From TrEMBL, chains A, B, C:
GO BP of this protein: D-galacturonate catabolic process; D-glucuronate catabolic process
Family: Belongs to the metallo-dependent hydrolases superfamily. Uronate isomerase family.
Superkingdom field: Bacteria
GO molecular function: glucuronate isomerase activity
Reaction(s) this enzyme catalyzes, per UniProt: D-glucuronate = D-fructuronate
InterPro entries associated with the record: Metal_Hydrolase, Uronate_isomerase
Pfam families: UxaC (PF02614)
Pathway(s) per entry: Carbohydrate metabolism; pentose and glucuronate interconversion
Top EC group: isomerase
EC number(s) given by UniProt: 5.3.1.12
Species classification: Bacteria, Bacillati, Actinomycetota, Actinomycetes, Kineosporiales
Protein name: Uronate isomerase
Length: 476, 476, 476
């Protein structure tokens, strides 16, 4: 191991290369480096913090649940099963030998991550959190595994301790409308807990009225809400009931992700009739889509009334590789983006609620073409619309630079919603926010260097982007 | 006011940050900085110059007519009415108190413009034209208002004096085909006037044969042209009549902006039949679109014959927010871009006139995806086709850089049409052209620094881009 | 000529301008500058090397066959006929006077190529290969013509000598499935030949079952393969027969270019019925498209079985200007890109063969929007999918930078296929590969300068990109 390449995080990483620009960027980054993490959208389970159970092993922490990590290994021929993906509860997690093998697969494929943000996130975790000082490789894999495993046995690496160390101010989870939010409640009632974990209302599958299993979901919604979902008004009331329940447990937003962003309105009678057909399982595919789009309009209406910020993450081809989905389930790395269209899709909602003071709509996309053509122009007119941070495949340094460069000229900075980590990889949260802060510092420094902005304005702006704006946009 | 931040225009603003590249860019910019302004497409009313009436007040000059300024304020919750938008002739402009209030709204929202070109344009006007030396803010608003208002009372700030000070060589207006062009005529006949203001033929609404009110427009066309528009051949002849009238009054181009760029040809009999239905108000929406697309082919045919350069600005969702359009009218900032397609859309016109020596077609877009995929490849083959400058939402530093970087590799520089300010904000014209010159200087300097172009070639190129090419492309 | 501007290739051309970044880039470029050229896709005729006939004259070498050169001249009003385009065999090439005139047209339009890669390629050929020391212009045209013509008369400029001088390791041609590959065979049997020229199976027109002349092609396929193509199974067997013939002659890939990338499967009975209709010339346009798309699925199936790497170059509007195609034929510069969609289009193939160990699929595009949205996400999951290099209109410095910056963050470097010159301009091959190496060096140097990659990793990566990866991906 004496000859292993070192792993060192350079203090100027991701800052602009030009020395004069870098100087400004360094000052801007220093101003926000230690500000708290505001995370209004993500996928960490609240139970981790409620139970504060130690993380089990390096693989189940860093590899198995992270489809960013898995998909690239798979693209180089690694079997997802070897990474612990798709195991049932009865399977349980990988045993020690298999976990160690998975970690070796990651380390021996380290060059595959060159140029990707996954490398940045993993390096930051390994070096900053676990004190690893050697570059991952086939040779160093076991040593790194041991070092991480040893750390995880320490109380300082339990979820609550990390929550504090990460300086998290608020962490949003993503939850099923029928979830009882027991973990959120437990945290709220725990006098030893001083953080803030808020649920997010994510009703996608309840709106996909033509999908297999939807009837059972509608029944479950009735059971949990106590509102009869046998009729259209009842179904809407049950959804509102659960939104209220979420709000009572601290929720500030409702998140939506369908194949498209459409919000076409039906007449009341059309909606009622289609809903009746849905309950009978007699909807055509087109009718199911029509009712789902109308339901999105209803969600916007409810948002304008109850104040849950509406966030949209549309345009993903889920489970693109049918055999992989069949073998391993959903969210295992074979989702592929698709084109998306916002202006026509959102017109019904924006005509009705676009200037409504209670309405907030944050738009995310995997289709970069919409940044300058659609999202920025919409957010640059409608008081309710905000530009969401680059998401998923676009959550990477050059993509974030393209995004800032593309949207700022139309909407400035104050109508962007602030960074969203959107992750289930808890330990990557600080690195993800730090990446955004470094890139914002670089972007603003470039404007200063080109005399497009004074440095005092840039300093004020980066502080706003980091904490003020997300708190304001998400009513935190 | 002693503590107000200063407003200073740095001489190197918008030039590349790298010192070596900036040196080259500075030399290139200096070469063209003082060249005359050639403005072959814009929206300043000719009457301003014919009448030479002093501008009324800071708000009606800088805020009310400029939807770039308004839309961003609106996106931060400002009521457009407070900015003087949508007032009828009987309403008249805002009174002194309201005008001052509007100006305060702008200044107190100054941080909203960070990162946008609007800030660059406004700063240039405030600092260079009006001598303002403090950064706009709630505190400095009244002082700046007074300073601008005082300047406007000076004869040196009347439209003709500014025309000279701005070194405008030619300024194109945009006009209704039935306009009598009285202001243009008055200027032509005025021996004290030495500038050049040319009309532009903009027939959009006369081609939207299915729109409400079209019949009245066709009647009006008949009245003004003296040609019977009751038949299809008559309608075409009346349009040609008005094109000839415009040419006789100095017009060099015809401008077109529809939802798409299609130019599908009908057979003579189909066109004749659809036109008859149009006159009876019996066209379906699809038939109206078909006839409009065919009319675009007829416009191209006429352009190839009469030499009016055809400019296309397609792909805008007009009046996206129906309630705002209902309350304030058109062009108030709620237009949103949409995707556009050129190669198939223009094939009928290009098959027929693409190599016709009399035909010129300049393509503009709000859909950046077409730069490298469609517009540059078309202009890189067809002698008639030129790449228009970045337009509207794309008329900003980083977008202009993306545009140059994207189109030049396929068409070089000589097939780009030159900068178009496209503005109704008269006082912003020098700043807009200066922005383009600075960015062209930066782009060329980068090529020089990377040894892709010699500096003597870069110097020759920037002069051509600035004055030679637009004069040639627009036959000025 | 004493006053002519010099033509000098700067050793740092195309490297980043920032001095510190350039230092790193220079080291990286030096590491790969002299590595062999691996060219797995191109259009140089094998006969040139088999016959080793000297090139005839500067125009027929540098201008006539190169539609990159021609199209830009045409866009400035030059008649393609004056460049020797579209001459039949009986016409023969341009005579000396006409050839010299064509060369003068090129040189006098030299400024038209500023900012384009064509200039880089031509300069490299003129300066490095032919020793030209003056910038092309109307004045220097004849002198340069003479200098190039004199060189071509030298044995050192015959194809085989150049093949060696260019350090080509392997050169792929593109061939009709019915080609007897005589030139490839001659090379293989020639004991004095030590290079490697491999054919590529390009069956496009055999799959366009509804196109005029297809029946004759199917008959020809029967004749050449000796397999009855009167039935669907026979047609497939005949195609497989020719693939096997190509493989026996060294082919490593099959290349496909249709209007879209779709691979929709038909049932066996549907395919059989449509094929029968095709043989009778009774297919509708939609049916022809359906059968072509199914044939693409069959090609993928065969690729997974016989190991020919499948390369896709979809989304071109061929012969956009009908009059030009009518007068001069195909591939004369009036092809225009169109939008393309991959994830849905390829789903049938990827569901069936996406994880098949024998299957390789390399995706090229002229639609940049698919880089981050579709191609990189697909290659970042499927082991079989690789990101092809920027192609055609995108084979230029800034486009290549956009491409690297856009795809690397999702797939890293190891899932990009390596550079493809795709050219029929034999003498431009070294310049094209050198451009790619310089840009890769610049991209990696930027990552090093931003502390996103260590320099030892960058060095390893650029070597892999240049030779290791293309050898591996194309099974060379």
């Amino acid at each position: 191991m004496a000859t292993a390449a070192p792993l060192q995080l350079h203090p100027d990483r991701l800052l602009p290369a030009d020395p004069a620009v870098r100087d400004v960027a360094r000052r801007l980054h220093q101003r926000v480096r230690d500000l708290p993490v505001v995370s209004p959208h993500g996928h960490v389970p609240a139970a981790w913090l409620a139970d504060d159970t130690p993380f089990r092993d390096p693989t189940s922490l860093l590899i198995t649940p992270d489809h960013y990590v898995n998909r690239l290994l798979h693209s180089h021929g690694v079997d997802l099963a070897d990474l612990g993906v798709g195991r049932s509860e009865t399977d349980g997690p990988l045993d020690e030998a298999a976990s160690r093998h998975a970690f070796r697969l990651l380390c021996s494929h380290w060059p595959a991550y060159r140029g990707t943000p996954v490398r940045f996130w993993l390096e930051a975790q390994l070096a900053e959190l676990f004190g690893v000082r050697v570059r991952p490789s086939a040779e160093t894999a076991d040593g790194i595994y041991d070092q991480v495993a040893a750390a995880l046995a320490d109380d300082a690496f339990r979820p609550r301790a990390l929550y504090d160390r990460f300086r998290i101010e608020v962490l949003a989870t993503t939850d099923d409308p029928c979830d009882d939010l027991a973990a959120h409640r437990a945290l709220a009632e725990d006098p030893t807990w001083h953080g803030r974990v808020v649920p997010t209302f994510r009703p996608d599958k309840y709106l996909e009225v033509g999908a297999p299993g939807w009837t059972a979901l509608a029944d479950r919604l009735e059971e949990v809400s106590g509102v009869d979902t046998g009729t259209w008004p009842g179904f809407l009331a049950a959804l509102q009931n659960r939104r209220d329940y979420f709000r009572a447990h601290g929720a500030v937003s409702a998140d939506h992700s369908h194949a498209d962003a459409r919000t076409d309105k039906l007449t009341p009678i059309e909606a009622l009739d289609l809903y009746d057909l849905a309950r009978k399982g007699e909807l055509t595919a087109d009718e199911a889509t029509a009712l789902r789009r109308h339901l999105m309009w209803e969600m916007a209406r409810m948002s304008s009334e109850d104040g849950l910020v509406m966030t949209l993450h549309p345009g993903v081809h889920r489970d693109h590789h049918a055999p992989t989905a069949g073998r391993f389930g959903h969210d295992v790395g074979c989702d592929i983006p698709r084109t998306v269209e916002f202006p026509s899709a959102l017109k019904p909602v924006l005509d009705d609620f676009g200037t409504h003071p209670g309405f907030r709509l944050v738009l995310f996309t995997l289709d970069e073409t919409t940044f300058s053509r659609e999202i920025a122009p919409l957010a640059g007119f409608y008081p309710s619309v905000f530009v969401g941070a680059p998401w998923w495949f676009l959550d990477a340094p050059d993509a974030i630079r393209r995004w800032r460069s593309t949207v700022s000229e139309t909407v400035g900075f104050a109508k962007t919603s602030g960074f969203i980590d959107d992750t289930r990889a808890f330990c990557s949260i600080p690195a993800r926010h730090d990446m955004a802060r470094r890139l914002d510092a670089g972007h603003l420094a470039q404007l200063v260097a080109e005399h497009r902005l004074d440095e005092d304005e840039a300093t004020e702006t980066i502080v706003e982007m980091t904490t003020t704006t997300p708190r304001k946009v998400f009513r935190l």
